[in-house]
């Protein structure tokens, strides 16, 4: 069953600086998963009594400062959440950090406790999912699974724990205890394509970048080749084509969300071949795209968060970002569990109409985009919402 996204509160994502020093310890449950001893929940402190350890050490039970319940009996905690991040982990200033922001928003709003895990690879997803589900101290009200590549593991895990609520982002698992949050990345990426297709044919400079109006080429760089990232590519290509018949899109996949040097190498190749704007959907790999844009005096588009904020050292070349409200999905799933309204067995779709995806202009140079191009992007948005533009979800190759 599909349901429309209903956002009760629209929370702006914090800057990268806002993520530093806030409560929440990496690791998640360890051992046999029965006690959640390593899965540090968070209330803003490090020890069971609000200090750095109740016995003057670094943790009252010899662990890393928590007994898995943050020193609380849970009686006044509305929910305890375990979150398993996608590969690439925290610090990407993109997809995983957006999910973390949703947890922080829920912590601030509701007073939840949480534990978080950063698997080293896809083979560990099921392990962490099951450890949270098995834990009884604390008992996790919700296990949040971030990323399409958790789908296979969750398909096996969810039926084994029918009383455990799960949520997953970017894929659908057909189980009654799993709430699925799917984004219409192709819609937001279409707007990025309209922006790129119009701008590349314009003599334009801002910050450290400039277009090459005699060029008819822009670029797209993906992380791991997958149906999700193909939606980004498909929408971008369609948007460029909508803006101009004369502009081509060069595409490339690095094969990783955590390879900035690979992103830089591929972006340099595109810029040096005539592209003046490159859009990435590649997590931390995209930092290399931004570096290449600075090196070549060209422009780049960010993804997932406003990367002119989260990667502010590159704000002079980041014209816009395709913001994907992963934070909103995480926050809402927690809110639903607190309200005893978990959307298990349902799929929630987040697109332009619900502000689940957005084209956000860069904070330093975005306001310099010509008004007629800003209008063209805004008009395309309205046409998509009205159903007058059907944006493809798959690429032609």
UniProtKB/TrEMBL annotation:
Amino acid composition bias (Gly residues), ranges on this chain: 24-36
InterPro entries in UniProt: BMP_lipoprotein (IPR050957), Peripla_BP_I (IPR028082), PnrA-like (IPR003760), TAT_signal (IPR006311)
Domain annotation ABC transporter substrate-binding protein PnrA-like: ranges: 82-394
Low complexity composition bias: residue spans: 37-51
Membrane topology recorded in Swiss-Prot or TrEMBL: Lipid-anchor
PROSITE patterns tied to this protein: PROKAR_LIPOPROTEIN, TAT
Cellular component terms per the entry's GO annotation: plasma membrane
Spans annotated as Disordered: 22-85
Annotated keywords: Cell membrane, Lipoprotein, Membrane, Signal
Localisation: Cell membrane
Principal subcellular localization: membrane
Family: Belongs to the BMP lipoprotein family.
Protein's UniProt name: Basic membrane lipoprotein
